[in-house]
Amino acid sequence: MIAPFTYQALPMRVVFGAGSLAQLPDEVAALGLTRVLVLCSPEQEDTGKQVADALGDRAAGVLAEARMHVPVEVATRARDLAGELGADGCVAVGGGSAVGLGKAIALEHGLPVIAVPTTYAGSEMTPVWGLTEGGQKRTGRDIRVLPRSVVYDPELTLTLPAQMSATSGMNAIAHAVEGLYAPDATPIVSLMAEEGTRALAAALPAVVADGSDLDARGEAQYGAWLCGAVLAATTMSLHHKLCHTLGGTLDLPHAQTHTVVLPHALAYNQPAAPDAVAALSRALGGVDDPARELWELAGRLGAPRSLAELGMQEADIPRIVELAVANPYANPRPVTQEGVTALLEAAWSGRSPGSPGS
Ligand code: NAD
User: If you measure from the C-alpha of residue 97 to the centroid of ligand 1, how many angstroms do you get, rounded to a whole number?
Assistant: First the structure.
């Protein structure tokens, strides 16, 4: 039986395919933009310049200052520069940090953003913005920050190192996993979640084995698109709450933290989410235990599997448990202090989900 649901589609324009960066000038022109500011991280300044060159006269400049979690100082500088240059839009090239900077400008000035993603984080598909000030990250939803067009060119992901590809891809799978058991899950979004997980789980081993495999890169990016769309359409649960708490409190790295926590959070929720388990089993090749399979996949990808190796101290577990349990939020299985403690102990030590002691 299909349970009652409400589904609200978000406007989404996607240009996908190897070489599709060549279509960026047409995307900019179609939005009526004449002077766009190109945003990227310092490490990707060359890519930012490549994009500006492709735009010719329509590029107003390049700001290579995007950083994780969008520090408010960087957002202010970017807004000022956009004003000084008379920019009428932004092109954000890179991962969630560059897209996040574009969203910060859109939030304040309403300038439209075009995203050219080069990781699998998925921010380009969501109306969620974040800004960090004095160590505190504020987030919100606003349709104005949703990119008007997204150009996915797998050629731009060829330089993403194997380890970052693996963890960024697992980060995307985490959106799909939580979308499948979300309180606002809907049949169409669940289709995207299942297919996104399948595509990423199939592609990531090939990407890690050979970073220049353009077909695998394309399949991974296709999966990332779907998983990002799931993140936009559903409410995230225990897994994302834990990762935000670990990132915000202990400054643990974003994608790696998702990679480590995901199998354990899923193992915790599996008994209460049979439909999600069925979908993930199909997506992962007919396995009985998707949580265990994601843990195995992380191992095959050479990705981190313990919070200890990300620098977390065991003594920090109680503090994280307290914060995660303090604010009630949607989760298929009740979130208890005892349950989350066992989950984090297993994730900290790196043992497999469901093994003795977890
Ligand atoms: P990131 O954007 O910080 O990128 C990490 C590093 O990888 C950067 O140095 C970047 O320059 C480099 N890089 C990116 N693509 C590359 C490529 N193809 N080749 C070589 N180097 C490359 O990391 P991320 O994981 O993509 O994004 C994380 C941030 O995004 C976090 O702040 C997170 O909170 C945010 N996020 C937001 C949403 C949302 O919906 N608002 C969704 C997902 C993530």
Answer: 5
Same fold, 13-127+143-157 and 162-349: no
| CATH topology assigned to domain 162-349 | Dehydroquinate synthase-like, alpha domain (1.20.1090)
Residue 123 Cβ < 6 Å to ligand 1: yes
pTM of the model: 0.96
SS3 329: coil
Cross-strand partners of 263: none
Q: What is the mean pLDDT of the chain?
A: 96
Residue 170 Cα to ligand 1 midpoint, Å, equals: 13
Cα-to-centroid distance, 203 and ligand 1 (Å)? 19
Top-level class of domain 13-127+143-157: alpha beta
Query: What spacing in Å lies between the alpha carbon of 196 and ligand 1's midpoint?
Result: 19
User: Is 235 buried (19+), middle (13-18) or exposed (0-12) by CB count in 10 A?
Assistant: middle
Q: Whose CA is nearest to atom 38 of ligand 1?
A: 123
Q: Which tokens belong to 221?
A: 């990016």
Cβ–Cβ < 8 Å for 28, 36: yes
| Closest alpha carbon to 358 in 350, 340, 346 | 346
Closest CA to 296 of 307, 286, 284, 308: 284
SS3 354: coil
**Cβ(269)–Cβ(333) below 8 Å:** yes
Atom of ligand 1 nearest to the CA of 43: 11
Each domain of the chain, given as residue ranges in start order, spans 13-127+143-157, 162-349
Q: What's the pLDDT tens digit per position in 65-108?
A: 999 989 999 999 999 999 999 999 999 999 999 999 999 999 98
| Two structure tokens written together for 82 | 């956009």
Calculate mean pLDDT across residues 22-32.
Answer: 97
Look at strands 128-133 and 136-141 and give their pairing: antiparallel
Q: What angle do CA 343, 348, 350 make, to 5 degrees?
A: 95
37 beta partners = 61, 90
Pocket lining: 179 vs ligand 1, CB cutoff 6 Å: no
